[in-house]
Specification:
single chain, 300 residues, alpha/beta, TIM Barrel, 8-stranded parallel β-sheet, two-stranded antiparallel ribbon, 46% helix
């Protein structure tokens, strides 16, 4: 656990790069972490490209368009869902990086598909190769965080086995990512990562300063609130939505922001819109709410 504590100290000290500043009056709950010796919460508004998948998938929106949309929405950072990148060629990734720089939009991270929960050592090795490829691409993009998936638990396997397979893969991938200064955040996203207990077990086994949790608040099995709270100290990035689980339980975002503030989280609250309303109008509405909550609970 020593390395985990070092990782948490590193993340708390380093924070996340962002354009501009948030000027707000600290909320009473937001003062508690500082009084208890935790860092002051620094909550930044972001958006992931997945929010506009309805337009990105058919090609009616490009990643360049998404970056410019972020400028229009006046947010602090964008999360690049790599499914819709044209390529991983350096010239293309550098062009996106330059476009974002010219408009003052940092990349809060990149999101990739992985299936780390593999019983077959050969397939685990292939997952590590895949992650390394995206670490290299993310370095070219100029981001410092990658969202990874644990994947589905194979039929007949136990949670304990799945945790072990996933942790083994992630630890080796983190060793490589650390050489580039890139953190891997395992997302709470079904399968082996359906519960906070499994995610915590994975992270304790990985025990790496460049490992954390991409805390998606909408994919937990069971009551989401205590699980979110337990993962806040390990959060390296977030995905924010308004509903949780298959039952589409409406989430109390104010309550959730209080958890992040109390935990001294410093980073992006990245909108991942999955509502039924058209993204063209639904995304800006959710971003407006996120901006308000970030101003309310940040002490910047």
């Amino acid at each position: 656990m020593k390395n985990v504590l070092l990782r948490r100290s590193f993340l708390q000290a380093a924070g996340f790069a962002a354009a501009g500043s948030l000027l707000s009056t600290p909320h009473a709950d937001a003062r508690r972490p500082e009084e208890a010796g935790s860092p002051r919460p620094r909550l930044l508004t972001g958006c992931c490209a997945y929010s506009y998948r309805k337009y990105l998938q058919p090609g009616t929106m490009t990643m360049e368009d998404f970056i410019l949309k972020a400028v229009e929405l006046e947010i602090e950072g964008v999360d690049v869902t790599t499914y819709w990148l044209k390529s991983t060629e350096p010239a293309y990734l550098h062009s996106l990086r330059h476009l974002a720089f010219k408009h003052g939009i940092p990349f809060s991270g990149a999101a990739i598909r992985t299936e780390m929960c593999q019983p077959d050592p050969t397939r685990r090795a292939a997952e590590i190769v895949n992650i390394k490829k995206w670490v290299d691409a993310t370095e070219l993009l100029g981001a410092s965080h990658i969202r990874v998936f644990g994947g589905n638990l194979p039929p007949g396997a136990t949670d304990a086995q799945g945790v072990e397979w996933t942790a083994e893969t992630m630890k080796q991938a983190c060793d490589y990512a650390a050489q580039k200064g890139i953190t891997l955040g395992i997302e709470s996203h079904g399968g082996i990562t359906s519960t906070a207990a499994n995610i915590l077990a994975i992270l304790k086994r990985v025990d790496h300063p460049y490992a954390g949790c991409n805390l998606d608040i909408g994919h937990f099995v069971g009551d989401p609130y205590p699980q979110i709270e337990s993962l806040v100290p390990y959060a390296t990035h977030t995905h924010i939505k308004t509903e949780s689980g298959r039952e589409r339980q409406s989430l109390d975002l104010d309550r959730i922001w209080q958890m992040f503030a109390k935990g001294g989280y410093q980073g992006f609250m990245s909108v991942e819109y999955e509502g039924e309303e058209e993204p063209a109008t639904g995304v800006p509405k959710l971003i407006t709410t996120v901006k308000m909550l970030c101003r309310k609970y940040s002490t910047v």
